[in-house]
Design brief:
By secondary structure, the protein is α+β, with helices and mostly antiparallel strands. It has 5 helices and 12 strands. It has a 6-stranded antiparallel barrel. Strand 9 and strand 10 form a beta hairpin. The radius of gyration is 46 Å and the shape is rod-shaped.
Length: 329
């Protein structure tokens, strides 16, 4: 009986030894296939402001609110920009009308009026020419005074000049406007349309919209404030740009390649790692940041590696310390 018990105990001991040896050997191999690194979460931030100046009329979100891409965040008082747009639109309509006039030419009524004026002045000149001929004969016979003769000749010359002017006016109306005038009219229209587009752009820029999904971190200004172009109004934390910077020793950097799978562990949720991958590794060595490694390792040269989180959420916060495990095989 004692032998049976002894054999049974020995069997249990051998089995336990084999199990423990296999378990720890497997765990050791697993650890050999994983590189454990430490770093901090980095989240992209963007400081948003208007491209134009003005008085802030409204800010639609509070700090901590989630904002969707292209969602309206804030707006300026639009009235000045609406007035500028109306003026620019009127200038475009004026320039179009002027160009149409230049390209169409003069109206038939204007041409007929010029012809009638020419006929009138031609008739007047004929009468004055006849008067001048009679005055010439009379002055030769000394039937009229020299002063009267000079007056008659002056009236004839004036009538001739007025007829010449009427002829030139009619010719200009028949020819229409010069090509240079038409080109100038086109340029004026182009300038007016460009000014209209600029005014419309300024009006659109009186609205501030989110460039991407994010969370409003800070309201720098409030409604009523008069701001300049580019002045920060709010700070937005983007939700699609979350990564972790870790630092890899020189002896191990050769094992790290872009696209390598990673698991990201946080202290708040140690049992729920985030999936990630290696996005970038620096080609230059640097000293380990003091916030990352122990005192003994701070003087070591390491390479910075960026780990991109594939499925980030609100639990990954800016500056949070995390543990990253890279799967080497």
């Amino acid at each position: 009986m004692k032998k049976v018990v002894l054999i049974f105990v020995l069997a249990i001991g051998v089995g336990g030894y084999c199990f423990l040896r296999y378990h720890f050997a497997e765990k050791f191999l697993e650890e050999q296939d994983v590189m454990t690194l430490y770093g901090n979460v980095e989240i992209r931030r963007v400081h948003l402001g208007f491209r134009v100046s003005g008085r802030v009329q409204e800010i639609l979100f509070q700090e901590g609110d989630k904002i969707a891409k292209n969602e309206l965040i804030a707006c300026l008082d639009k009235e000045p920009y609406q007035d500028n747009l109306a003026i620019a639109d009127a200038q475009v309509r004026k320039a179009k009308a002027n160009l149409e006039k230049l390209e169409t030419g003069n109206r038939p009524q204007e041409i007929e009026q010029a012809r009638a004026t020419l006929k009138e002045r031609d008739a007047t000149l004929k009468v004055l020419n006849a008067n001048a001929e009679r005055a010439k004969r009379l002055i030769e016979s000394k039937a009229i005074a020299q002063e009267e003769y000079d007056t008659t000749i002056a009236q004839r010359d004036e009538a001739a000049a007025r007829k010449k002017l009427a002829e030139e006016t009619l010719n200009l109306l028949l020819e229409g406007f010069r090509q240079e005038d038409i080109e100038a009219g086109k340029a004026q229209l182009d300038e007016a349309e460009a000014n209209l587009k600029r005014s419309q752009t300024s009006l659109n820029d009186a609205e501030l919209r989110s460039p991407n999904d994010g969370i409003l971190l800070t309201r720098v200004e409030e409604p009523g404030a008069v701001v300049n172009p580019g002045q920060t109004i709010i700070t937005l934390s983007l939700r699609d740009g979350v990564w972790i910077y870790v630092y890899v020793p020189e002896s191990q950097i050769g094992q790290v390649v872009a696209g390598m799978k990673a698991e990201i562990y946080t202290d708040s949720q140690p049992d729920k790692p985030y999936a990630g991958q290696v996005g970038y590794k620096s080609p230059e060595a640097e000293f380990t940041p003091k916030t990352v490694q122990t005192t003994e390792l701070r003087t070591d040269l390491v390479y910075r590696v960026r780990i991109i989180a594939d499925n980030p959420d609100e639990h990954l916060c800016q500056g949070m310390p995390v543990t990253v495990k890279l799967k080497l095989k």
